[in-house]
Amino acid sequence: MTDANFDKFIEETIYPELEPLEKKRQEKVNIFWIITVCIIVLDIILIVLIQSIFSLFFIGIISLIGIGFLRSGLFKSYDAEFSAHAIGNITKFIDKNLTYNRNAYISPNEYKASRLFLTSYDGYTGRDLVLGKLDKTEVKFSYLYTYYEEETEDSDGNKTTHRYTIFDGLFFIADFNKRFSGEVYLFPHGFRFFSPRKGTKKIPLENPNFNDIFDVYGSDPVVSMYAISTSLMDRLLNFKQKTGSKINMSLIDSTLYLAISGYKPFKVPIFDTVYNKEIYYGYLRQLKFASGIVDELNLNTRIWSK
């Protein structure tokens, strides 16, 4: 895949489909700025009339919230159309067997099935689901964000709610292509959210460098060492070194679950023209990173044939 190929794809596939959207985008941007300027002018008039420092703070906060809702409402349909044409087409460009859905994500049942994060969540959201088959391997991945909340109360009885992130990043599911009894877990060394899963114990592997980076827990030492092979250890270490991200992994019922922190959802630029190629190169890099996990972990090589 060369830059010339992707440039040609942008010009021949993405640009023609997005051309009608560019006019809509410009109209919405104009409306956004007109209303925003009106809000600012109204704010200035109110502050001059009221002449209070508290009014400056209060009016400013209300205005920022209002502008945020205005931006979200105005560009909601544009975001959906742009994503479908731009990111959807680039997903197909990478592999025709992949499909993309802006508003879908890994389900809570799949998240729970991974048993990677046992902390109960108060919030669960995501976007940008990609699923399909890469060569011989069924894959599914999306951006995911989960969190829990805690309420504190000060000496005056004032309550404050704090939000804590459980996971924020790329959640990847693939067919591991081998049936084995038991479960295997891999966490960053000293992972603070980890609590030993029932029936598992820590299993040191033969690679001391690997043991310095990851903790492996499994229900059966033989199965765990068989699943986390020398080759897979090397690939996980290389992947960790290359991305620098925090990696959690589980192998359950022939399915590989991988949670990689730091991956962000696709951002749709609304103040930038659709004819900026850098936008699409950014999407391409993100999608190749996620889909490339299959090659990084060598999942298409059927050394673990069922």
Automatic annotation (TrEMBL):
Transmembrane regions listed in the UniProt entry: 31-50, 56-74
InterPro entries (UniProt xref): DUF3137
Pfam family, one: DUF3137
Keywords on record: Membrane, Transmembrane, Transmembrane helix
Name of the molecule in the record: DUF3137 domain-containing protein
